[in-house]
Amino acid sequence: MTTAIHSASVELRDIHVSFGTLEVLRGVDLKVEQGKTTCVIGPSGSGKSTLLRCVNRLQEPDSGDLLLDGESVIQSDPDKLRQRVGMVFQHFNLFGHRTVLDNITLPLRSVKGLDKEEAAEIARARLADVGLADKAPYRPAALSGGQQQRVAIARALAMDPDVMLFDEATSALDPELVKGVLDLMAGLAERGLTLLVVTHEMGFARSVADEVAFMDRGKVVELGKPEALFDDPQSPRLQRFLSQVL
Ligand code: ADP
Ligand code: MG
């Protein structure tokens, strides 16, 4: 890939989120240092997606703070924040009736105010980065799931973010398509983008993450280097979780 990477640290402090009487995040503290990768693992319903959504304020926390590069952005313009914090979803969220190229140029034009040619130039470069330069004129449905997810990644990267969030980015893919997407994510980690990755891919977490956070019932129950978490889990809840997934 050709873009110079700039990245930022991101930190959540004492984040609380409730939906009605359901307390989904119960005081979460988590920091990803600049250029590092943290993987978040944990059972379904433990609050992983809600946590990730708090980082680009798709979910506004009830209380707590969010810092980018050490500066609070909890009160800032959410649209500006989302230019700095890209997100990739399980189900790609591409515009189905638009071409692959348009999927990348439209947000560049509407959010960054680029003209058509500038946007197309960036879009083509990012598509080339993810190995899909030849797919620009197609609709997403003409691509495999893995290719569609790589388009979604290219779209997020085109905004030139400081931090990228991945929410189970490979969970909807056929098994043979998972590796291409994980390899791409590992490449971003290697280039020094700051990544916060919710994943069920324990092999990826072990080999790529600088730190792994285990969430259960709205809290980070255990946090540490992958070897420590996977080989020497301390809490019974993590031990039980790992015995089910490994
Ligand atoms: P995970 O990603 O770990 O599976 P989520 O963050 O998606 O967990 O969800 C945590 C809990 O919050 C679940 O019980 C879920 O049903 C609930 N939840 C998530 N979003 C909402 C919402 N918008 N309204 C009500 N409940 C929600
Ligand atoms: Mg989830």
TrEMBL record:
It is an enzyme of class 7 (translocase). It is a peripheral membrane protein. Residues 10-242 form the ABC transporter domain. PROSITE patterns: ABC_TRANSPORTER_1 (PS00211), ABC_TRANSPORTER_2 (PS50893). One of its GO terms (molecular function) is ATP hydrolysis activity. The keyword Nucleotide-binding applies. This is ABC-type polar-amino-acid transporter. Transmembrane segments: none annotated. Keywords: Amino-acid transport, ATP-binding, Cell membrane, Membrane, Nucleotide-binding, Transport. Its EC number is 7.4.2.1.
